[in-house]
Amino acid sequence: MAENVTIARPYAEAIFALADGADALGKWSQTLTIMVSVADNPDVRAATGNPNLTSEQVYGLFAAACGDLVMEAQNFLRVLIENDRLAALPEIRDLYEALKNEREGVVDAVITTALPLDAGQLAALVAQLESRFKRKIKPQVAVDPNLIGGVHMQVGDEVIDGSVRGKLTALATAMMK
What we know:
- The protein is an alpha+beta fold and 177 residues long.
- It is built from 8 helices and 4 strands, in the order ααααααβαβββα.
């Protein structure tokens, strides 16, 4: 949702600046992931949407479900609750992760194959992608039998389609011209 991304950006940038200054990028990544999973719980969603609960009661419920939060995370949570921004937590986390990955020189790669890859094949493919993009690759692997064979990869905003389905589609398009 574009609106949530617009709302989430200043929060993500503020948390990133705080985490980067404290050399705690990984810790904040874990904290935001926990907060998102708590916010996604149906019982928590029902409670946070209850108009009979005060902000402090919502904070107490949410903080208890998150576990041990550092003071900065507690303050961040209070600000989100006071401004009715808990729904933006997934976008805040995603934007934060993008900033973190950029700082660390990491790029996400979605690798879709027709058949499952073994560890050696995945390691070789990741090494080739890292060599090509000159960045560390964080792979997410999926299997889609509709590819027929080969691999479809999306690295950042670049797509590399080495699948049989992709080749057939390109051939059909070329024949139509």
